[in-house]
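User: Hi! I'm working on a homework problem where we have to compare a predicted structure to a textbook description. Could you give me the structure for the chain below?
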Amino acid sequence: MNRSQAEPPYILIVDDEPSMCELIEDDLRLKGIRSKWYTSALQAIDAIHQYDFDVVLTDVRMPGTTGLQLCKQLTEIRPDIPVIVMTAFGTLDNAVAAMRSGAYDFITKPIEMDMLTLTLRRAVEHRRLTEQVRLLESSQESSNAFGEILGQSPAMRKLYDQLTQIASSDAGVLIVGESGTGKELVARSIHAGSRRARKPFVAINCAAITEPLLESELFGHVKGAFTDARGERRGLFLEANGGTLLLDEMGEMPLPMQAKLLRALEERKVRPVGSDKELDFDVRVLTATNRDLETAVAEGRFREDLYYRINVISIELPPLRSRGTDVLRLAEHFLQHFAASDKKPISGFAEGVAEKLLSYSWPGNVRELRNVIERAVALTRYDKVTIEDLPEKIRNFKGGTVFIGGLDPTELVSMGEIEQRYITHVLDACGGNQTQAARILGLDRKTLYRKLKQESD
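Assistant: Happy to help. Predicted structure tokens:
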């Protein structure tokens, strides 16, 4: 059963002393943990077939089948359920015997309830993370029908719905997302699902080319148009004719070039550099950016008329930190890819790795995750990637909070300071996108801009 992360843990307690079972049950109930107890191993085995327990907590010394024997049986019947062994005879020999029987952990009597709770919660988390990894490994990555785009989180399912609706259209699409979220991959998926799929898909990074060369790249040039123009060039609009052209990093395009692009899009014609003739083209133009173009328009860095021309349909790609267990799905995909590429017999991730991957914020998104897994596969000396194979920033990562002061009155801050800190926190979470941050904060963009200006003054 795929148990929800938010569902309370369910513990099976096995001890031949009913008073001990009741004591543990009562304490766990106060801490929001459900449990069920039995006084024999045989009863516990029957219960395992009826209920979906997260962890088994068993005494060692019981009449008939002992706790260690029960542990061995559970390892064969339900290897997915961690077993914690408790005993009043806390010797090293007992600990070793418990571990050899397949126990997850070992705890001694008299029981320290807080320590027991901590051990149980750790075991529950281990089981649920293991279950998530197992489900991701066994899932069919092709189920979303969008080529190399992977993920089944709500955010990605919403994206798939959008792609299904717009692929058959010829309307311009503005793809917005942080660096590394896969904007070109989405653009290729749109092309692959369109009536233009058999025609060329051409992409260009507008930030990587200077303005004079960008015009030549897009519109072409005639022989002798400039010093190095030794021959004629068709340009990407004509190379992509009948297909799709992606203008990536659109927010970096210089203003003069924006005016020329707008004219080409409106007239569906291009004029090669140095030519007096205009050539027709039939291309679906997709644009992509990690910039906040609405703010750029307001600040005069991007033409408003061009913005509305390219933003017929807008798609916002979710950052990896908002995609939940898609992180594990992608990590498993990259691990299999690089293990095969490097010819290394790596079967998966060791204990604790999934937790680290899920808790990290991934500012570089899918691209960063890919690089991390490639590095881990290259460095690992084992048949599984371990925590030590991850970069230090991921091993030691701690989530950010908005600090508002302690109990000391001298540490407390004003409401204005709290507001500024929270605005900064939201902006960081949105990758600096002021339009998205304003939407989350419930402010219009002009109000947010004014508050940011007040902060900088």
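For your comparison, note the following. The chain is about 45% helix and 10% strand. The radius of gyration is 29 Å. Good luck with the assignment!
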